[in-house]
Amino acid sequence: MGSNFFPNSTPVKSFVHIEDEDKPIKIAVMGTSWSPTSLFTYQALINAVRESQYKDLVQTHFIDQDTEFPFCYNERIIVGFPTTIVMIGKVVLTFVQNEKAADSEQKQKIRLVGQLNSSQMGNIIEQAYNCYQKKRFRLTIPNQ
């Protein structure tokens, strides 16, 4: 029995905490304290939220992959690489390569692996807000 985000996984204390937050938009960076790319990505998220007009709606989280290693192993998350997960309430948003392509033509991802800068995180926040407003239903992968 897992969290609502990943029902087939072992329970993850970090996700239970995220589910209890009051703010509707939740963005988590999974990473390690020893990975410069993880720390850079999390700091980029903090900076983007600080500069966002939606900062009162966004809650940020850093989930330590070392602490949650069994979850990372079960979900095939590579420890040491920053992994971004975006939620609206208790729903995990998916990332797609191209918003205009038909669902059957592209692979949807529930997490985005890779280092992101403040501009890319700002774009994700903007898209997440549009999902919150029901103007869109998924996120496009920012150019890397």
Would you write up a description of this structure?
The chain has one domain (13-137): Glutaredoxin, CATH 3.40.30.10. It has helices at residues 13-19, 36-51, 69-75, 118-132, and strands at residues 25-31, 58-64, 83-88, 91-92, 95-96, 112-113, 139-140. The strands form 2 sheets. Strands 1, 2, 3, 4 and 6 form a 5-stranded mixed β-sheet that branches. Strands 5-7 form a two-stranded parallel ribbon. The chain is of the alpha/beta class. Helix 2 (36-51) packs across helix 4 (118-132).
What are the main properties of this structure?
31% helix, alpha/beta, 144 residues, five-stranded mixed beta sheet, Glutaredoxin, two-stranded parallel ribbon
Rounded to the nearest angstrom, the radius of gyration is 14 Å
Question: What fraction, in percent, of the residue positions are helical?
Answer: 25-40%
Number of helices: 4
Query: Which oligomeric form is depicted?
Result: single chain
Query: Any idea of the CATH topology?
Result: Glutaredoxin
Largest sheet: 5 strands, mixed
Q: State the fourth-level CATH superfamily.
A: Glutaredoxin
